Amino acid sequence: TAIIGKPNAGKSSLLNAILKEDRAIVTEYEGTTRDTIEEFVNIEGVPLKLIDTAGIRDTKDEVEKIGIEKAKKSIEQCDFVICILDASGEFESEDYEVLEQAKDKPGVILLNKWDLKNQYKEEIPFSDQKKIMPFSALQGKGLKELEEYLNDLFIKDSIDYDGKIDIEEINKRINE
């Protein structure tokens, strides 16, 4: 399960919230995560490998570019994506690029920082393909709902432990 988004969307904060520990560095500065951070977690009996990735954006920084390429590779290789958008700001081209990268993968879109003033006014691209959930990684609001959603996908065999994915079943759930 790859956790993706633009810089400072809340990817590392989500990882820390799920793990219930400060595993990833979280700062106000963009580009803190430059390499993938992989952790295993058990959500109500469902084992998941979570991959926190570098923020996807255009940059001139060579080290950050390597991290972004690793993030894109994680998207290609994962079975499920958690796309994090910063709902406290306006929808930007970087947000679109994140969703474009993940459009062919089953996943969920978290509108993070929902506890702050929500700026989103337009429809989110690819929202017909993924469940959208309001979220606050900082406050933990929406974490239980996310965990229940992920657990439900596994329990009902939409995704199994061998990495096989039932796309039709996931699409049915998205439209529920």
Note down, in words, how this protein is organized.
With 176 residues, this protein is of the alpha/beta class. It has 5 helices and 6 strands. The chain has helices spanning 11-19, 62-77, 93-101, 143-155, 167-174, and strands at 2-5, 37-43, 46-52, 81-86, 107-112, 131-134. Strands 2-3-1-4-5-6 form a 6-stranded mixed sheet, sandwiched between helices. Strand 2 (37-43) and strand 3 (46-52) form a beta hairpin. It is globular and about 45 Å long. Residues 160-167 have low confidence and may be disordered.
Structure summary:
With 176 residues, the chain is α/β, with parallel strands linked by helices. Helix content is 31%, strand content 19%. The longest helix is centred in the middle third of the chain and has 16 residues, at 62-77.
Could you list some keywords that capture this structure?
19% strand; alpha/beta; single chain; 5 helices; 176 residues; 31% helix
What topology does this entry show?
Blueprint: E1 2-5, H1 11-19, E2 37-43, E3 46-52, H2 62-77, E4 81-86, H3 93-101, E5 107-112, E6 131-134, H4 143-155, H5 167-174
Parallel strand pairs: 1-3, 1-4, 4-5, 5-6
Antiparallel strand pairs: 2-3
Helix percentage range: 25-40%
Number of strands: 6
The assigned structural class equals alpha/beta
Our estimate of the beta-strand percent is 15-25%
| Whole-number mean pLDDT | 82
Shape: globular
Query: In which order are the strands of the major sheet placed?
Result: 2-3-1-4-5-6
- SS element count, helices: 5
Please trace the helix and strand order, writing H or E for each element.
Answer: EHEEHEHEEHH
